[in-house]
Amino acid sequence: MKYMLIRKADADTENGVMPSQSLLQAMGEYNERLQQAGVLETGQGLTPSREGCRIEFKDGEAMVTDGPFAETKELIAGYTMLNVRSKEEAIEWARQWPPEDAENGLCLELRRVYEMADFEPGAGLDTHLKLTEKMARLPNGLNIHLEFQGNCREALTFYAEVMGGDLEPFFTHGESPDKSPFPESWNDKILHGSVNLGGRRLMGCDLPEGAYSRPKGAMVQLDYLDPALAGEVVEALAGGGHVNMPFDQTFWAYRFGMVTDRFGIGWMINCTEKPE
Asked: Which of 74, 92, 126 is the last residue of a domain?
């Protein structure tokens, strides 16, 4: 069962007083204990109410009221979502809240999250069950895997530089515990490599002639907000390759272009909206 552990607001949080390094350290260690125990779902701190608003509905109309709000004791400053076996276990974790955050007094509130089994069966519940099932089928990530003819290391290193990504450790054919079907000359070639682009990955491997498939009917698409930056990426990717479609305005985008890089990989670069 899930419980939300709510950290109520106080004068400091409403005034935007940021936590000290010692408090950040204590909270980090507390969250680490929760994570290691397998009970931490998520947790976030909230900015002061002056940066938020309330949306109230009267006579069918939404009325928006900007913060700040006076009744500090009714506000929240953050929350931690716990996945525990019982209310008692949730209370025990709440008791372990870092004392560094309670020097001037502190109020925590614990609330159980409703589960689907709490509701009566019916058409309304079915709508939620279908949505839950649909969301459960969504993958945790969607990445792209590319094939190269021996220059995967060079290509992924180049992509990391152009797109501001982070190279992850390479794994070579020679390091595979299974006997490689390829000649020993391929032992230093890449069996698996990846560039981490903010949680999304460009992955790749090296394959010799006969196993390698030249890209066909697929391109890697990149979205940018800054057309100048996008233009730099287009220029970099086109170096040693060729431009399939100049990076220019189209009827569907402020800027759009297509290139094939020197590794034979096709790219579509897109800026949907004109920047302000």
From this structure: 126
| pTM as predicted | 0.69
Residue 261 burial by Cβ neighbours in a 10 Å radius (0-12, 13-18, 19+): buried
Burial of 29 (0-12, 13-18, 19+ CB in 10 A): exposed
Instruction: Identify the DSSP state of 137.
Output: T
**107-150 pLDDT, tens digit each:** 999 999 999 999 999 999 999 999 999 999 999 889 999 999 99
Residue 221: domain span: 215-276
Same-domain check for residues 201 and 165: yes
**Distance linking the first and last C-alpha atoms of the chain:** 46
Q: What are phi and psi of 269, to 5 degrees?
A: -115, 130
**Listing from the earlier edge strand, what are the strands of the sheet with 242-248?**
220-223, 266-271, 255-260, 242-248
pLDDT in tens, 27-72: 999 999 999 999 999 999 999 999 999 999 999 999 999 999 988 7
What CATH number did the domain enclosing 243 receive? 3.30.720.110
Structural domains counted in the chain = 3
Residue 134 lies in a domain: no
- Those residues with Cβ within 8 angstroms of residue 229's Cβ, 6 or more apart along the chain or in another chain: none
